[in-house]
Specification:
Length: 204
C-alpha cells in the first residue's frame, strides 16, 4: 500500500457549527426560509453542494438555490477564516507519522479552496502531497480518487472517510475503505474501522 487518501469533513475536522452560522446568514440575506445547526449539516455533509441545497430547501426554485450557493460559500470561508473547525484529537500526530511512510492526499466533494483553508487554519497542509475536489476538476469523489492515483502513479491506496457516500465512492473507485467511526455517518460493512485518527497507526 502506497497511499492514504482522506475525506475532509467528519474525518479531518468538524466545521459544522461554524458553517451553520455562515449558511444561516446567507439564507437571511437572500430571503430563503432556512435555519440549520451543526447536527443538521452532519446529515448532509459529504454530498455535492447542490444536492445539499436540494435536501435543505427542496421547495425553493433552482434559481434561488443557485443564488444561495455562492453566498453560503462566501460566508463559510469568512467564518472559518476567523474560527476554524475542530481538528480531531490525535490527527496531527497520526499524519506526521504516516507522512513519513505513505503518500497522503485529500479528496472531498467540497468547493475550490476549502481544503486549502483547512490547511491554512490548522497547519496540517505540510503532510499532504495533493488534494482534489469538484470545484477544481468538475468531477465527484470517486473520479477524483482515481485521478489522484493516476496522476501520482499510485497503484494501491486506501480512502479514509466517515459516510456511506464515501463508502460508495470507494466501491466505484475500487479502493479499500477505512471508516472513521468518530465522524458523521454510519457504514455497515467497511474494510476497516477506526475510532480515532491514531488508530491508523495500528492499521498501517
Amino acid at each position: 500500500m502506497e497511499a492514504i487518501i482522506f475525506d475532509v469533513d467528519g474525518t479531518l475536522w468538524d466545521s459544522t457549527d461554524i458553517v451553520a452560522g455562515a449558511w444561516n446568514k446567507a439564507a437571511k440575506e437572500t430571503n430563503i426560509d432556512l435555519e440549520v445547526n451543526g447536527d443538521d449539516l452532519k446529515k448532509v455533509f459529504g454530498l455535492p453542494m447542490m444536492e445539499i441545497m436540494d435536501r435543505l430547501i427542496p421547495n425553493e426554485s433552482k434559481e434561488k438555490k443557485e443564488e444561495l450557493f455562492p453566498l453560503c460559500s462566501k460566508y463559510e470561508f469568512e467564518f472559518l477564516s476567523k474560527t476554524p473547525g475542530m481538528v480531531y484529537e490525535g490527527l496531527g500526530e497520526a499524519l506526521e507519522a504516516l507522512s513519513k511512510k505513505y503518500f497522503l492526499g485529500a479528496v472531498s466533494n467540497c468547493q475550490s479552496g476549502y481544503i486549502n483553508l483547512l490547511y491554512k487554519m490548522t497547519g496540517l497542509g505540510k503532510y499532504f502531497k495533493d488534494d482534489l475536489c469538484p470545484g477544481d476538476t468538475g468531477k465527484l469523489k470517486a473520479d477524483n480518487i482515481r485521478i489522484m492515483m493516476e496522476k501520482h502513479g499510485i497503484k494501491e491506496a486506501v480512502y479514509v472517510g466517515d459516510t456511506i457516500m464515501d463508502y460508495n465512492a470507494c466501491l466505484k473507485a475500487n479502493v479499500p475503505f477505512v471508516f472513521a467511526r468518530y465522524g458523521f455517518g454510519h457504514v455497515d460493512k467497511p474494510d476497516y474501522i477506526i475510532d480515532s485518527p491514531l488508530d491508523l497507526l495500528k492499521l498501517f
